Amino acid sequence: MPPSATRAHARPGAAHAGRGARAWWTAAGLAAAGTGISAYLTVSAARGVPPVCVGSACAEVAASPFARLIGVPTAAWGLALYLVVGITAVTGARRHESRSTLATVLFGLAAFGAVFSAYLLWLQVAVLRAVCVWCAASDVLWALLLISALRIARSPG
Amino acid sequence: MKARRPTRRPTGLLLMGVIAVIAAAAAAMVHWMGATSQPSGRAPMTAPEQIGGKWRGRAAAPVTIEVYSDFLCTHCADFAATVEPALIAEFVDAGVARLVHRHFPVLGPGAEAAAEASECAADQQRFWPYHDALFARARRGALRSPADLEAAARDAGLEPNAFAACRQNGSGRPRVDADRSEGQRRGVEGTPTTFIGERKIVGVQPLEVFRAAVRDARPR
What we know:
heterodimer; A: mainly alpha; de novo design (two linked rop proteins); two-stranded antiparallel ribbon; 6 helices; 2 strands; 76% helix; 3% strand; elongated; disordered N terminus; B: alpha+beta; Glutaredoxin; five-stranded mixed beta sheet; globular
């Protein structure tokens, strides 16, 4: 049987569902990358050791009073948020029937992360004048997560 | 006719976006206030916007003065007694510069122990009083033993049990090592060595040298 015939017998909407799941898995992958970065920064903070970095910027940022939020390393808050985003994205990828609600939740989480991340980037550039590459990578991930969440939310349900 | 799948209504998204932005702004405000406000119940500091740790001065000051120093080094003690107070009065308290202490212990285990002890003081938000107490002792030759580090802690008003526990578990050591490694990478060979902007100033030079470096480093 030629491949085109196989496609002809496919369930209506299956191709669309596949594309939709890919978008959710992409968001989950971005969240996994962010989880890795923030876990490393959290462990560094717990050990009191500056993260491995190009130049002294990471040590400068890690030693600053802005490295904590309510007594907890800022990276640990990031880790928690990335985990919640990741769980939401994986659930969305697996459970088609819950996608409408999860898409809105994912968008809210990504918007929160992106806005707070933008604030942290401003702190590094304008106040500390030291940009940590790990934090910059996380900033990029949040921007990509917001774009990804927006595309998921605006796609047909 | 081809059936169109419904797109999600934008109202829910818009509402969620607004809630997320407000929540992020509130979190940012809590973060900023927590980092820049003075801890309650602590001794007053010299400048209203001074913040904890190994910094003095305004967080957003346009110039950073970094001093690589060793608490047992007599030149460093001279620097701390002469140049540093002048720079603090002229530039740090005026909001032009922030002063950052960096460890570069070169005079053996005693110097390393003093640097680590100062990190324990930083944990109690009392780094600068302890810094001043250590250098005051170094100048009069009263910084020779671990007991002197504890006496300096009393001088600086540190909580003794937390200070002793911190020294015992060695939590300050990684931070001292990190400063020293970074100093080596930046070409520090002796103490005190001061970085102001791009300028590296070795030793206790006339105050005018430091003033000129701060002026050059200020954005025009």
